[in-house]
């Protein structure tokens, strides 16, 4: 080996060791040739012990040797290591057409993207998901209804009420809201409460399918429709969702050419497979969702107006979590319990200070982000109680900024006393707001128009606030 090659190998080892993910590489004989520091820390196995060993001797439930044989990459799989469900990627490395090594990556975090993989995995392969107590999740438990949507705020209560009404009709429903607010959860609830509840619920993420495959995914294809087409053809989602619900997620990402095809099915209740001539009937309830400003897209001509009107018969907007902060304690409490159960550990509690910190955060990733944070708190904090410094540490690691300065009270059990603390927070916020408004009025010598401009709010909002604060 020359100097240059040796130097490159050194660099490679350093890179592997500084990676946050656990990385292991096996050679053609399934012997471990790289075992990075992160993997070693997580498994507690020393690098020297692992190197040169057959991978099955070192890593629990590994499939790297299988991937070596099959040459088929496995991404986003679940693997139980040290009693925990971990997300792993297994990627074969080829040279001259031969698999010469396989890289295994163990993902500890990666927040939303990885959680999405996990969710996708759970949705497509729910039957094979085993609970920590080794029971397959029963059918009724998997059925999502509005009762499973957590939240007691007025905003969420109103949204649930509208969803309940929508479920009774067969009208199309357009669900809008930021990412992670629960649009899919609402879509599933509507399905389970609707006249189509005995039929299938088929979900398609329009943004995840490449444009050229979207038509065959949605409408199916006939035998020999294109190179690589499956023998005997394949039914599309409209056929599969017959007498059920088709949920088209991220509809704002659908190309214009497909939009006209969707419009046709909605109007004619018939679809045609790619390469086919005979139309099939499809009696399907359509629910769509988007986190894009769809009205703006209509104005800009990137979303068909006629389709928009067809889809927007009932509109359900899911408010972001920051607009319904009173739901945060309930969600935290629910997910702490659920995740502790999943890991088979006794329930942990948040100290009051920790809860206050979490309440002051804006949650841009909404409930999906909250679930991630809870999962990370549970896995990283070993004590029974999660403190404010644990929360700060966790947020610092993810470069998320918490807002400080809320009144602190001693420890509390979140499900019992959160409403009180929330009221305290509200009162504190109001006092702050009142003071800011009084100062603005002082500085502008009582000129309300100027004060509103200074505060960056509309004049009518200022009048409302003045009334509210008796100013
Ligand atoms: N009100 C809620 N109660 C309990 N869990 C919720 C609630 N809302 C959302 N979740 C959970 O948050 C995660 C994200 O929800 P969901 O996938 O429905 O969001 P979404 O708005 O469809 O996201 P995206 O726009 O990114 O597709 C899921 O794990 C879901 O179970």
From TrEMBL:
Keyword Iron found: no
Domain Sigma-54 factor interaction: 149-379
Native organism taxonomy: Bacteria, Bacillati, Bacillota, Bacilli, Bacillales
GO biological process per UniProt: regulation of DNA-templated transcription
The species this protein was found in: Anaerobacillus isosaccharinicus
Highest taxon of source: Bacteria
Keywords in alphabetical order: ATP-binding, DNA-binding, Nucleotide-binding, Transcription, Transcription regulation
Protein name as it appears in the record: Sigma 54-interacting transcriptional regulator
One MF annotation (Gene Ontology) recorded for this entry: ATP binding
InterPro entries cross-referenced by the UniProt entry: AAA+_ATPase (IPR003593), AAA_lid_NorR (IPR058031), Homeodomain-like_sf (IPR009057), HTH_Fis (IPR002197), P-loop_NTPase (IPR027417), PAS (IPR000014), PAS-like_dom_sf (IPR035965), Sigma_54_int (IPR002078)
PAS domain sequence ranges: 8-60
Keyword Nucleotide-binding assigned: yes
Pfam families to which the protein is assigned, alphabetical: AAA_lid_14, HTH_8, PAS_9, Sigma54_activat
């Amino acid at each position: 080996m020359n100097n240059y090659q040796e130097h490159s190998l050194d660099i490679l080892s350093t890179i592997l060791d500084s990676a946050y993910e656990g990385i292991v590489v096996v050679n053609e004989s399934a012997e471990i040739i790289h075992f990075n520091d992160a993997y070693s820390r997580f498994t507690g196995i020393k690098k020297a012990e692992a190197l040169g060993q057959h991978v099955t001797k070192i890593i629990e439930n590994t499939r790297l040797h299988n991937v070596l044989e099959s040459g088929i990459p496995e991404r986003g799989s679940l693997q139980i290591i040290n009693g925990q469900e971990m997300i792993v990627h297994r990627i074969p490395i080829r040279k001259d057409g031969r698999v010469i090594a396989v890289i295994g990556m163990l993902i500890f975090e990666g927040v939303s993207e990885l959680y999405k993989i996990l969710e996708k995995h759970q949705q497509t392969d729910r039957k094979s998901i085993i609970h920590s107590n080794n029971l397959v999740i029963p059918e009724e438990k998997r059925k999502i209804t509005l009762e499973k949507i957590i939240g007691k705020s007025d905003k969420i209560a109103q949204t649930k009420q509208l969803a309940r009404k929508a479920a009774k009709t067969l009208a199309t429903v357009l669900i809008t809201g930021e990412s992670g607010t629960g649009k899919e959860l609402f879509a599933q609830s509507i399905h389970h409460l609707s006249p189509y509840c005995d039929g299938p619920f088929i979900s398609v993420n329009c943004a995840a399918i490449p444009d050229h495959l979207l038509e065959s995914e949605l409408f199916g294809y006939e035998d020999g429709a294109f190179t690589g087409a499956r023998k005997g053809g394949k039914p599309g989602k409209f056929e599969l969702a017959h007498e059920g619900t088709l949920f088209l997620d991220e509809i704002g990402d659908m190309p214009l050419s497909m939009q006209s095809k969707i419009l046709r099915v909605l109007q004619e209740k018939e679809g045609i497979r790619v390469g086919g001539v005979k139309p099939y009937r499809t009696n399907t309830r359509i629910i769509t969702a988007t986190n894009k400003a769809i009205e703006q897209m209509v104005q800009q001509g990137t979303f068909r107006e006629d389709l928009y009107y067809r889809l927007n018969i009932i509109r359900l907007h899911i408010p972001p979590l920051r607009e319904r902060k009173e739901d945060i304690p309930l969600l935290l409490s629910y997910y702490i319990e659920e995740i502790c159960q999943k890991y088979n550990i006794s329930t942990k509690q948040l100290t009051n200070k920790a809860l206050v910190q979490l309440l002051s955060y804006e949650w841009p990733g909404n409930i999906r982000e909250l679930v991630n944070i809870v999962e990370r708190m549970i896995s990283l904090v070993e004590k029974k109680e999660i403190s404010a410094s644990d929360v700060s540490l966790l947020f610092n690691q993810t470069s998320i900024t918490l807002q400080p300065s809320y009144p602190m009270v001693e420890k509390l059990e979140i499900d019992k006393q959160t409403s009180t603390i929330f009221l305290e927070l509200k009162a504190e916020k109001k006092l702050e707001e009142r003071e800011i408004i009084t100062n603005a009025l002082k500085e502008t010598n009582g000129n309300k128009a100027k004060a509103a401009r200074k505060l960056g709010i509309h004049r009518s909002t200022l009048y409302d606030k003045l009334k509210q604060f008796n100013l």
